[in-house]
Amino acid sequence: MRETKRAVLTLEDGTTFEGKSFGYEGSTAGEVVFNTAMTGYPESLTDPSYEGQILVTTYPILGNYGVPPRRQKDEVSEYYESDCIHCKAIVAQDYTYDHSHWQADRSLADWLKEEKIVGIYGVDTRALTKHLREHGSMLGKIVVDGAGDVGFYDPNKENLVAKVSCKEVEHHGQGDKTVVLVDCGVKHNIIRCLTRRGVKVVRVPWDYDFTVIPYDGLFISNGPGNPDMAEKTVENIRKAIEIGKPICGICMGNQLLSKAAGATTYKLKYGHRSHNQPVRRVGSDQCFVTSQNHGFAVDSSTLSADWEPLFVNMNDGTNEGIRHKSKPFFSAQFHPEASSGPKDTEFLFDEFISLL
Amino acid sequence: MSQTNRFDFHKVLLLGSGALKIGEAGEFDYSGSQALKALKEEGIETILINPNIATVQTSDGFADKIYFLPVTPYFVEKVIEKERPDGILLAFGGQTALNCGVALSESGVLDRYDVKVLGTPVRAIMDTEDRELFVKKLDEIGVKTIKSEAVNSTADAIKAADELGYPVIVRAAYALGGLGSGFCDNEEELIALCEKALSFSPQVLVEKSLKGWKEVEYEVVRDRFDNCITVCNMENFDPLGIHTGESIVVAPSQTLSNEDYHYLRQLAIKIIRHVGIVGECNVQYAFDPQSMDYRVIEVNARLSRSSALASKATGYPLAFVAAKLGLGYGLFDLRNSVTKETSAFFEPALDYIVCKIPRWDLGKFHGVKREIGSSMKSVGEVMAIGRTFEEVIQKGLRMIGQGMHGFVENKFMSVADIDKALSAPTDKRIFVISQAMQRGYSVDRIHELTKIDKWFLHKLHNIVETAKEMEQYDDVEKLPEQLIRQAKSQGFSDFQIARSVFGDWMNDHSEEGSDRVRSYRKSLGVTPVVKQIDTLAAEYPAMTNYLYLTYNGSENDVKYLHDHRSIIVLGSGAYRIGSSVEFDWCSVNALMTVNKEGWRSVMINYNPETVSTDYDMCDRLYFDELTYERVMDIIELEQPHGTILSVGGQIPNNLATRLDKSNVNILGTSAKSIDNAEDRNKFSAMLDRLNIDQPRWSELTSFEDINKFIEKVGFPVLVRPSYVLSGAAMNVCSNNDELERFLRLAANVSKQHPVVVSEFIQGAKEIEMDAVAQNGEIVAYAISEHIEFAGVHSGDATIQFPPQKLYVETMRRLKKVSSQIAKALNISGPFNIQFLAKNNDIKVIECNLRASRSFPFVSKVLKINFIDLATKVMLGIPVERPAKNAFDLDYVGIKASQFSFSRLQGADPVLGVDMSSTGEVGCIGTDTNDALLKSMLSVGLRIPSKGVLLSTGAAKQKTDLLEAAHKLNAAGFKLYATGGTHKFLNENGIPAICVHWPSEPDKQPQALELLHNKEVDLVVNIPKNLSSAELTNGYKIRRAAIDLNIPLLTNARLASAFINAFTSVPLDEVEIKPWQAY
């Protein structure tokens, strides 16, 4: 039998799950969330929106295709969604020690060890997921045998956006039009999707007053945690609304734009984290399968009169996007840039670009 | 559901797929049943055409009107003319329905009667069916397909290869048997090969080589509002080159990265939009394991085997949804039928893995090639569900039911050349991999030889390693708990664990060893947990009753009431020759009665092609193994009132004794009685006690004893070896030569391997008694007769019910003997007895204390549901004898067998004592001729219009066929006959043209040429005896008829009956009448 260290996941309500360590043999804590996607662990692990979270994968077999190399292309990561792993840990039912894929240059285990991230398997992730579904997302910690105990840690009390946002203004791509991208923890594929469409991207920190620079369009990125923490961004967005240039937002961007439009947000019981969320464009027969990763949602009923829902979740009726009734402002709660997940809504980038 | 998007249909015709055959099996019963449910829910009147009487869809309550008629343009038009439906569904009956629908559309029939095709338009179907149109269509959107370039010179070949990219395959055009073909990795090799190929062929085809590419499929759904989802993707364990129906398949894909997965998904959606599918289709890809290069292999614009598998794998009811979309709904109008609250517009998230494994029965055929490849040979499949690959592959290998216990710890299988057996796959390759690993082959080496992705091979290797580790221990109780847990999480059965420890001791102590593992692991708390399939990976609460067991989990998803108010029904397992959709019908009907009578119904089955594994057919469905171990696991969890073993065929029946020993409450006939009927010696002794006649038989262990026995009973004899080396398990031997040949070549006679020899009665009628008894008293019965004389397996025979040619005296005796047996065995439930009758003497051949293959047939013809009655009996509910009996029927039902010889390259299409049919139909008519004609046309025979080739075997058969030959002659058919037959016909005044056997190649005209030139469109070839020359000559003719798609009959009685039918009843006088009108 393979020599593995025992690891115990303890939830804040005292429930424990025992597993085996395959990653970094330390201890860690965070908010425990589950994702029902069947592929895309390199993308998820590096997605800044997972900052501070322990990721539970419901798909039982993890690590099948290893990890693609760390490479930069056009000043962003070629295969990852940021420069490092943001999850605190990853939890699965089964781990594949012998991966197989032409693009892989190392195993998931090696990568986790490299970045000192805990990984455990042998956990009944379905039972764990049901527990989270019934009791809501909760804090948890993982202690690997031999490593010291740690306390619980609540990432939502922190300004995670500030933590993962870029610290200085960066430039990506070339083009006649300039898009200001507010980095609340941007996934690199958003940058790739914009630059691929021939625009110049000015990536600014979350609290940067971008209204001082000339731009043709504003893009507000995804990001981790509670949107109430990013009040500074909301203030800047309010100014941008006054300026009137096209605005688009994704995920956290949708929540911040909504807040700027007067709406409030609330925490979902256990969030949407999957590749199969159905959304419908309000007032149409058009439906899309979307990739999602968020724990907070916009309360559509609190939108001011100038705004209306653009997309709605077909499962639970929650808000999936908003738009201004007359001006070129819209946003999506889901991820049109996918990565990971289905790419069916990438056309939203085209819609945005066409407004510039 | 919003009604606004629905089109206005009132009466819809659904085409079924007919008899089960290789490549078109039970999955279409499932999809058709789902479609009928979807239409019924809308209040639409449904008409079904399907001659497959054993299906669930042709049962009461599924369609409003059912026609047991051939699914051919002629008959479908007749039904349209009569019923005037306003819509037709073509996508739910496999290729048979699709082809028929396209023909009706092209001939203008659908327009003439104003019948609209629901769902995918015929134009789109044709774009996917016609290879050339298909390539063109996908070219329009820049999607790559597999193309070959025809070139006439080496220079052009080089150009073509440069465009395609190396490696390429070069094939010489117009050359048979792959002459001049080969792979080229570079230009040099290409030049060499092309020069050679062009020397004997004017043209070569250059094609990109996709050897070793992955094969991946997506199931895609689109509504008329252009909304698309992919319900599931699947990856083949076996790389390209092996038909997907012959491949081990997993879902979801395992070796694709997120980028790969969504790249192919997006392409699939692009394709389905461009083709214009409304409903469901599947897209098959070849995918380069070293890049993101791909080719589309094909698109099926209909429900398919894969879509049935995808439905079961995900819980997403594809056929049901496809039918609704055909009615005009959008996906957004429909709900997820598992969660009931979320939308049907979504893509299932799996939190488990499924593995499909094909079931082959190649051993049943003489002469068939064991290699598997681009054409399908398997007759059924299983699906295993679990949470590691190791778990599902081992479960699956047990489920296919070929005596294997999983990937390891099986009986030794001798493989002469492992390298070859790895690189040239046969139906046994997975077990060759196991052996190779045990002999030290590395994963890399096996990958080189098989091209199977290393991901799978590493997982298989994990299993081998665990087994090796357990082999270090010399007693079960010494195994560490962690090791047992690991083994269990890798799908090891109790037997495998015991065998790893005890080795060959287990050959004689299988129960004892397994029981020790069971009690030891239970003492450690190592037990499986029950998980739900809920389509959303636990994201939303689901009340789903669709369950499986796994050792990869710590918590059950369902609560157990332990109120003893449930009844477990054991299903039939994988479809195989001898057990298929008829037992699914029995299982489903038992479930329905259990529910009706106020009990909770629980199903255990693992066959994805069935209706019984639809989660809306019962209160709880365990999609899991039918082994003693797993059934006991479930019984211990479920604590049912009782378990029904007698409706799922032989697999559940075989568990009787062992379950009984474990104090399981077996409903109906007791395990002891089942054993008394199954055990040849006990049963025979009982018949002797009751003074019931049986063919003489003896179990013998030496040639000497065999000869002595034959001296007593005389030739021919039926020989049944207990250990088979190759070929069929049973044979009739007419003389010493044959006997010796059979026993030396095919079987092994020894003390360990005795042979059962029985007297074989020639010219006897074979009769079936299907019945239900309660406490030893027969409640209902149906006697049916075979058209063929005894010697044709009852599963291959053509059966007539009610019997038209039995003496009243015989009937009386049959009833009396059956009553005696029912009483002696104290039968409570379904049973079947097979008899031989000659003159008025009857002999019992065998007795099964379970439902038989013919239960659905007799139930539907008689319109008395035998399974409903039997289930009531087993539930202890008093039943009354039905007032009606077979003598009241003023119509006839005929059940005919479907053969799949055309799929089984090389197999001799001759019928014998071992079963070889893959399916059956049952048609009802005013008389024998009417019913026979319908049923024979339903299994693919056609009425000849040109000539008939007769070679009618021995003198007796020649005489049997004389009247038929007269009729053919009178009807103006041109007759051809081989030597002896020609002489015989001439002597009897029937003109015929003499043709020559293949063994006389210099004489003209040649029989084979006649077939090749399509000058005959019916071949009657009756094998005379088993002499080798006769066999070869006859074989060549029979095989040519199959390969050239010319109807073939090999039984004199059946041939006479068929010829009599079509010469007596003109086609347009065949009655077009729904079942309900009889």
From TrEMBL, chain A:
Pathway info: Amino-acid biosynthesis; L-arginine biosynthesis; carbamoyl phosphate from bicarbonate: step 1/1; Pyrimidine metabolism; UMP biosynthesis via de novo pathway; (S)-dihydroorotate from bicarbonate: step 1/3
Binding site for L-glutamine: 49, 223, 225, 252, 255, 293, 295-296
Name of a matching Pfam family: GATase
Catalytic reactions of this protein: hydrogencarbonate + L-glutamine + 2 ATP + H2O = carbamoyl phosphate + L-glutamate + 2 ADP + phosphate + 2 H(+); L-glutamine + H2O = L-glutamate + NH4(+)
Family annotation (SMART domains): CPSase_sm_chain
UniProt GO molecular function: ATP binding; carbamoyl-phosphate synthase (glutamine-hydrolyzing) activity
Class in the EC hierarchy, top level: ligase
EC code: 6.3.5.5
Alphabetic keyword roster: Amino-acid biosynthesis, Arginine biosynthesis, ATP-binding, Glutamine amidotransferase, Ligase, Nucleotide-binding, Pyrimidine biosynthesis
GO biological process, one term: glutamine metabolic process
Source species, domain of life: Bacteria
InterPro entries associated with the record: Anth_synth/Amidotransfase, CarbamoylP_synth_ssu, CarbamoylP_synth_ssu_N, CarbP_synth_ssu_N_sf, Class_I_gatase-like, CPSase_GATase1, GATASE
Record region (CPSase): 1-177
Residues of the active site: 251, 335, 337
Family note: Belongs to the CarA family.
NCBIfam families attached to this UniProt entry: CPSaseIIsmall, PRK12838.1
Described purpose of this protein according to its UniProt entry: Small subunit of the glutamine-dependent carbamoyl phosphate synthetase (CPSase). CPSase catalyzes the formation of carbamoyl phosphate from the ammonia moiety of glutamine, carbonate, and phosphate donated by ATP, constituting the first step of 2 biosynthetic pathways, one leading to arginine and/or urea and the other to pyrimidine nucleotides. The small subunit (glutamine amidotransferase) binds and cleaves glutamine to supply the large subunit with the substrate ammonia.
Assembly and oligomerization: Composed of two chains; the small (or glutamine) chain promotes the hydrolysis of glutamine to ammonia, which is used by the large (or ammonia) chain to synthesize carbamoyl phosphate. Tetramer of heterodimers (alpha,beta)4.
Protein name according to UniProt: Carbamoyl phosphate synthase small chain
The organism of origin for this protein: Candidatus Amulumruptor caecigallinarius
UniProtKB/TrEMBL annotation, chain B:
EC code(s) of this entry: 6.3.5.5
Cofactor: Zn(2+)
PROSITE patterns: ATP_GRASP (PS50975), CPSASE_1 (PS00866), CPSASE_2 (PS00867), MGS (PS51855)
Source taxon at top rank: Bacteria
GO biological process: glutamine metabolic process
Pfam families (UniProt xref): CPSase_L_D1, CPSase_L_D2, CPSase_L_D3, MGS
ATP-grasp domain mapped to chain residues: 135-327, 684-875
Single GO term (MF): carbamoyl-phosphate synthase (glutamine-hydrolyzing) activity
Protein name (record): Carbamoyl-phosphate synthase (Glutamine-hydrolyzing) large subunit
Organism for this UniProt entry: Candidatus Amulumruptor caecigallinarius
Native organism taxonomy: Bacteria, Pseudomonadati, Bacteroidota, Bacteroidia, Bacteroidales
